[in-house]
Description:
This protein is α+β, with helices and mostly antiparallel strands. The protein folds into two domains: 3-202, no CATH class; 291-439, no CATH class. It has 13 helices and 16 strands. The chain has helices at 3-6, 12-16, 69-89, 147-161, 178-192, 197-202, 214-217, 240-247, 259-265, 275-282, 289-300, 308-317, 426-429, and strands at residues 55-57, 61-64, 111-116, 124-125, 128-129, 134-135, 137-140, 326-330, 333-336, 347-352, 356-364, 371-379, 385-389, 394-399, 403-411, 434-439. The strands form four sheets. It has a five-stranded mixed sheet with strand order 1-2-3-7-4, with helices on one face. A hairpin with a 2-residue loop joins β8 (326-330) and β9 (333-336). α3 (69-89) packs across α4 (147-161), α4 packs across α5 and α9 packs across α10.
Amino acid sequence: MRIRSLIVSLVLAEARGIASFPSPSLSSPAPRAVAAAPPADFTANPRVGPGGSRYKDSPHFRVYSATNDATADGAIAMLESAYTCFVDDLGWRSPGLSFRSESESGPWYKMNIYQVESLQGAAANTPTDMTLGLAWLNVAKAYMTEPAVVVHEFGHALTYSAVAMPAGWIEQTRTGAWWETVANFVADTYLTSSVCARARTRYNQRDGATLINLRKILGDSHQVLVDGTRDTGNYYEAWPFLSYVFANPDNYTGLGTPVFPAVWTRYARRSDETPLHVLERIISPSTKIQTVVARYWARMAFVDIGHAKAKAQFVSQRRNINYANLDSQGGGRYRVKSARRPRYMGANLIPLKGTGNLVANVTATGNPRAFTATLAIQNTATGEARYVDMPGGNGQATVASGEEAMLVVVNTPEKLVLFDPFKLTAETNTGLDYSVQLTGLTA
């Protein structure tokens, strides 16, 4: 079984079950106070988790019950490397701080990592002491030095600690599925991104393979952007959207590396809003989040999101991806397959055949403003892509020899929806019914 499929889900019931908080306003949390510098060596806290007498310490972590020193040292080097990247270099809030306190000056506690013999149906998990406001990791012994597992769980700990409760999204429902999206984004960024290169080098950690699952994220691109449906959802695979807003190849104001931790720190208190609502506040008022999502999907046509390893994997795997989105009606006219209609913030990626002058028209049934269409055109030799907007569903372009095109249709309703990805309703899970007329190229 692939490591990716073993990455364990956070026990969200624990996070959702918190009911004893005061009811603060819906305003975003106040800016953090200037913090004192953290100590070089954090304080051990054996009360977090089961504790134990056999352990090994590092400045920010304590590893309990490792098989041997080599295993403990390997886990420590990986975790200190991840800590350096996300906390020291990128400025995320330290998991050594309690999420029960707004203090940015301590106390600072080592994070406890427990090697366990095995876990039921999981490689690792992230329990929390909800009184102390500190998380710890349980890791099955076979995965103690596997970053796709351990750094994924560290991503959950970073999410907990991002901002003191109740200001963050810990106790909210509509953020639930996004926990796994964020954790896989953290793991993949650690493994592949240049932003973590210095931290990896410092601790002699090699970069790794991307976690991207192209058959799912592209082959099922019609699903809700983050879909928590059991067995068929995409919430573990949807992280490339976060990589896109993090890399920000389209230079949208407010996006880029500062988007984390802003998605947490600018979450409206006790609002139970979705992360898309937060992103809408983060970006420039002149840009709609629907525009950002639509351009993300346009770039995903050729995986042009600023992620070199994901792009390389696309080149090698694209023949195995399901792009069967349309049925031909004859005369250059097509209609979206009923089962493939793009749902809330989902998309259809439609490869086009041929070169020359292309005219495309997309017509939606119902609200004609509920979608965004784009032509993505790639130079097959260089991999460079360009994007042609299709206002009102109408667009044209010249596809030169040595180029290839895709039509991208995204379900982008005018208003954002407050929805729980674990409990999709007709409002988000009903697909966009549309037709396409093509002249010059075929689908």
